[in-house]
Amino acid sequence: MRLGNCFKFFFFSFILSFNSCSFKRVALNSMAQLLDKGSKTFYEEPDPLLAEETIGSQLKFLEVLLKNDPDHLSLIVQAVQGFGAYAFLFVEEKSPERAIGFYDRGLKIGLRALENKCGELLLSQTDQTHFKKSLQKLKKKDVPLLFWTSYSWAGFVNLSLGSSEALSHLPKIVSMMERVNELDPNYFYGGADLFFGVYYASRPSLLGGNLEQSKFYFNRALYASNHHFLMTSLLYAQTYAVAKQDRELYKNLLEEIIHFPLERFPEQILSNTIAKERAEKLLENIDEHF
Prior knowledge:
- The chain is an all-alpha fold.
- It has a domain at 185-290: Serine Threonine Protein Phosphatase 5, Tetratricopeptide repeat (Alpha Horseshoe).
- 74% of the residues lie in helices and 0% in strands.
- The mean pLDDT is 89.
């Protein structure tokens, strides 16, 4: 049975089980545990097409589960991470407008949970000092929720550069990623450092861009995964190397990605496979950037 069909089977079995309300909590917790353990297999999947179909089915299933228990933390984190990863890996390059929608769905789920934890509204908060103070209520155990909510928010803003309202939230995202680094700097292969590497390379110097800072954070992120998480190298090339107009670094980074043995990092075969595909295309068109 294909993974996508497996989720359809579990989906309908789960819905039928809700006819007996006494089993609702047990079913929810069981499914949350199953999905949490099983989600790792998606990132170990070597076939991006199969992974895309499977993750899409899982996300709809997660939404159904959350309708029945909107405060289930494990389901919330899985949904926020899933929508962000799905948008970045499969949708953003082909359909940016559609990707915005997926980032937004993950953001809304994650932001609601963060607001519950902080005890106040975060989206409408205009006082940046107060916003940072609110984030101090979050602890290390909250890092997955905080990071993936920030990730979805950053993806949403990145694809909404024409919106002054979206851009106005960027300082909040920066503060959230700073809090991730304070609590657990190695989370998701130095994910917060990767964000800051992209952030400082992508902005003009007049708006806070700083290539030295970008290089510093990219190198920290590379160190966090021992150069095994290839999306770090890919984004390093796409942002820093292009902004610096360092053709040699750009070429070296992409070639390192292309020649990296996938079996060396099985837990992220999916992301690394997609990074390899993108690196090959970028290398073929290197003259467009230099």
